[in-house]
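Retro notes, structure queue

What went well: the backlog is down to a handful. What didn't: a couple of records were mislabeled last round, so from now on we paste the full input next to the output in the thread. Example, using Amidase from Rugosimonospora acidiphila:
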Amino acid sequence: MLSIRQQAALIQSRVVSATELVSAHLRRIAAINPCVNAIVTLDPERALAEAAAADAAIARGDRTGPLHGLPAAIKDTHDAAGMRTTHGSPLRADNVPDEDELVVARMRAAGAIVLGKTNVPEFGMGGHTDNTLFGPTRNPYDPALSAGGSSGGAAAALATGMATVCEGSDLGGSLRNPASFCNVVGLRPSPGRVPDIPTAFGWQPLLVNGPMGRTVDDTALLLSVIAGPHPGSPLGLNQDPGMYTSIDPADLRGLRVGWAPDLGGMVNVDPEVRAVIDAQIGTLLDLGCVVEEASIDFDGADEAFRTLRAWTLAYLLDDAIRRHRDQLKPSLIWNVEEGRWLSGRDIAAAIETQTRLYHRAREFFERYDLLVAPAASTVPFPVELEYPPFIDDVPQTTYLDWIRVGYDITMTGCPALALPAGFTPSGLPVGLQLVGPHHGERGLLAVGKTFEQANPAGHRRADLPALARRGLSA
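Corresponding output:
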C-alpha cells in the first residue's frame, strides 16, 4: 500500500489519475468491506465526480493541496455536508448535515475526496466499534475479533487499504487502541492542536480530534492539514501547522525514556501485550536511549476521568435517554445515569485533579524526554463482546475499565502516539504508546519515525485475499 506522498506524487505527475485511484479504492471496498465492515456509508457517484474535477485541475495546472485527489473516509461522528452522519445511533439514522465540521472542511480544502463514513460505537462511546445500525467492525488480522474503538472503522479502513486518508477523535484512547488492534498509527494531539468545531465543550480539553495513518509520516502529514488555530476554539494553539509537513527522524542517543508498561502499577496488562512491549526495550536501547522504569503519578486519574466523562454524557444525552431509552445500549444508559448523580463538588474535584495531573506530567518531563506504555492493555477480543471480561485474570466490570491505559494519559493533556510494536505468537497486532511533553507533537513524531524505521512491525499487513473470500461468503 502506497503512502500519502507516493499516491499524491503519482497524481501530480499524471502517472495515475484521481479517477483511477478512487475507482481502485471503490473496488477494494467492494471486495473487503463485506467482511470487515469499516465503511458504513458510501457515495461513489459523488466521489468519482470529485475525482474527475481533481483531474481537470491537474490538467489545467492549478495549484493543489497536499491531499489532492486522495481517497478519504470520515469518522461517522463528524459531519460531512450532504452525507449521512449517524453517530452510530438509530436516533440519527437519517441525519444528513448541511455543513462540514472543521476537520472535514480542512481535509476537503487540501484536496481529499471523501468516499464515505467509517463505523463507530453508539455516539462514539466505547473501545469496541459496534452499534445496532451497522453492526461491528471486524479486525483485519482476524475478523472474529474487535477492531477497537471508537475510531475502529477508520483504523480497519486504513489497515486494509480501503482509504488512504482517515481521521478520528480520542477521549479515552479512541485513536490509540484501534491503532494498536489494527497495526496502524494514531496520534492523540494536545488539546487545541486540532480545533474541535462545533462543540459545546470548548473549554474542556478531554475530547480531541486527530490523525491516523499507515505510517508516522502519513499521520504527521494529515496533522499538518487538520491542525492550526481557529477563532472559534478558545484553547486553539496559535502555531503554524506547516511544522508537521516534513519531519525528519530524531537522533535518539541519550534520549531519557520512562518505561511504564502498567503506568506505575495503575493498569492491568495482558501478558501477551507485555511480552511484545517488553521486547521493545532492546529496540530503544539499540537506538541509544537511556531507559528507566518510571511513570507519571496517575493517582486520581481514573476517578476524575470517569466523573468528567459521565458529567459530559449526562449533559449531552440526558434528553435522549429520557425519550428513547429503549433504543440506546445499556452501557451508555449506565454512564449517563452515573452523571446524573454528580454534584458540583464532584465535578470541581475532578477538574482540580486534572490540573494536578497536568503539573505531575510537566514535572515528569523535566526528568524524562519520553514516556512509553502499551497503546492498549489487551489484544483484540471476540467481536461479539463489548469489552474483554478479564485482563491478566482481573475482571473488567464496565466498558471503561480496560481502556484506562489510554484515559489516564488523556487526563495529563500530553500528546500520545500509538504505533505498531509487534505481533503475538498467534499473529495479533500490539501497539506501543509514546507520550511526550505538552505541545510536543513534533518531537514525538520524530521519535516515532526513528522507532518505526528500527521496527518493521508496521509493514506486516492483513491477508486481503482471505478477507475478500470471507466477504464473498458472508
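Agreed that this is the format going forward. Reviewer comment attached to the example: The two ends are 25 Å apart (CA to CA).
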